[in-house]
Amino acid sequence: MSDAWWLVGAACLLAVLPWLIGGYYLGVTTKMMIFGLFAASLNLILGYGGLASLGHAAYFGIGAYALAKLATHGVDSFWLQMGLAVCAAVVTAALFGLLILRARGAYLLMITLALAQILWGVAYGWRDYTGGDDGIPGLKRPSRHFPWNLTDDIGFYYMVFAVFCVLMFCLRVLIHSPFGRALVGIRENERRMLVLGYNVWLYKYVACILAGLLAGVAGGLMTWQAGFAGPSYLSVAYSATALIMVILGGAGTFAGPLIGAFVIVGLENFVSGYTDRWVLVLGVTYVIVTLFAPQGLVGLYLGRVRRSIQ
User: Fold this and answer.
1) What are the angstrom distances between the C-alpha of 18 and each of 12, 24, 153, 167, 229?
2) Is 286 part of any domain?
3) At what angle do helices 200-226 and 153-175 cross, to 10 degrees?
């Protein structure tokens, strides 16, 4: 729990941030928290469970589309819209998990990519239902069944902040629970955990479902912020972005994916103001981190702290 004070300090800063920054930067910070949640969901299965994925955007996108379809049918309820997004993501994760856990190594990466691409293909081609490459635009945030006004940018920011803090607290408790420790044990030595009597498959399966739940929430929040849901939310680009966030910050650490998400989203909005070649900058950043900080920014910091103590 040594990093608990840092997390509390970060939460306090985010709580007062709307009174310190303007509207544009408030939207950027809101997006940072949404992608922080998305990256943390991938870190649960990758960093703690050892399950690499190139298709994690499937749950993000399916949650976004489920919420968008309910909104377009006139359902103006916070809990119903988000509830459907979560349910859709959880069901998708439960079904995909049955297939994903049958593969290992490179085959695991390929099957996660293939499953996500199937959903992307459906969203892109089924124009009558999903809007095709145009997506579903013009979505409004719900105005019912929530204590404050979400149509206001500050009100929406605090809703995202509240969801972010609650889910991150729950995730932290989960990671430090016997379930989380068993998941790390499976990552480190699956055969040993089997010998000790752990149901390895079930632990991985539950982790996949929980990761899908978190990603579905992130997808729903992103849809509310952008007022749009489209095939890009299901694309390999979104999966790769989440993967880079986790690796950049430090896989298998609690704060790493959050830091990675904040850095990547911040860089994207800063660099894109000067050049259209944001993807090139992202690629160079990823190569530099992989070569000089393979444990991520958190790992680099902890390494320096240990060397200074010695």
Assistant:
1) 12, 11, 9, 21, 26
2) no
3) 170
